[in-house]
Amino acid sequence: MRISARTRIAGVMGSPVDHSLSPLLHNAAYEATGFDGVYVALPVEPGQIKLAVRGLRALGFIGANVTVPFKREVLGLCDRLDRLAEAVGAVNTLVRGSDGLITGFNTDVGGFADALAEFAPDLMESGGRALVLGSGGAARSVVAALQGRFTISAVARRTEDALGLLDLGATEVLLWTEEALARLVGEAVLLVDATSASLSEDGERALPERVPVELMPKRALACSLVYHREPRLLTEAKASGVRVMDGGNMLIHQAARAFTLMTNIPAPVPAMRAAFLAAR
Questions:
Q1: pLDDT tens digits, residue range 207-216?
Q2: What is the DSSP letter of 169?
Q3: Is 238 among the residues known to form the active site?
């Protein structure tokens, strides 16, 4: 890559972002397509996201991805919102238009649907019960991706935070308890951990109850949106003979959609996947 005064800039904003593989994926896509751009990690301290978005506009960035914990906060900082992002209530992609205005998109929804269709097409065709853990922006995106294909139950540590999932297609929202998990996990052909707890071992230890993945049907699939470490849930699911999918496939497909939104170029998914696998 040759960086010049004409090189366009994009990045990923979050706290933390030091583990993010998004720069590798997007820079691989730039190289594969010949796009004169560079994509960097942009650590943003809590309370500074408004200034960070203003900086994107002032410095002429073509766009940025947004990760934890800002996906909902940036909703009110966009000049325009894509209808899907507005419905989900979470933005993970900002695109600066030729008019200087910033539009917020959500590529997590399509990215998760693409990943699931690629990894487990049998489940996408047959449907059944899906259990989603969590109540934040990631959980909202997952529920929106599964809506119409599965009967969706959601379990959260604070049910008042998860009630909005009902508007997106969930049929029930329950408090995270041993009883609720035991009943729903045994019925679930798809389990998706969309909590932030699995980002670290400390977060996993803070969960109120363990998820009994050994109760899942053997044809089921257990998913996590985390890709930089193997969460306990996936380790235990594999030991029980349950299929697992980490967040790598979703990362690749949501990044591909974000790349196209920012550059208007079809995404070179094989090149982005190769960069991801090489990094692992």
A1: 878 999 999 9
A2: T
A3: no
